[in-house]
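Quick one: structure for this chain?
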Amino acid sequence: MLHTLMKSPFETNISFLISMLKKSDDFLALQDGVLIALADNIFLKSIVLSPVKLYLIKEDVYARGIHKNISSEFVLISYIHFVSLTLKHKKQMTW
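Got it. Here's what it folds into:
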């Protein structure tokens, strides 16, 4: 399953989201969801310890000016790669 976080992690039940993640899943943050990757935020440790691959939309990270402050555990991708993830995962959950 592809889990996409579009809202700020402060507006989402991140604990529940993380409890839903399985090893075969991927996690993608976009729009205000990219804030989850900020270094030293309260959600970072939990999401990094989850069993999934972590992705961020590069354009959203740069649009918010946070590219120098994100965790190296996340892979920056383009919207083209986002399409590839949606093709890989027939099931998707938007948070």
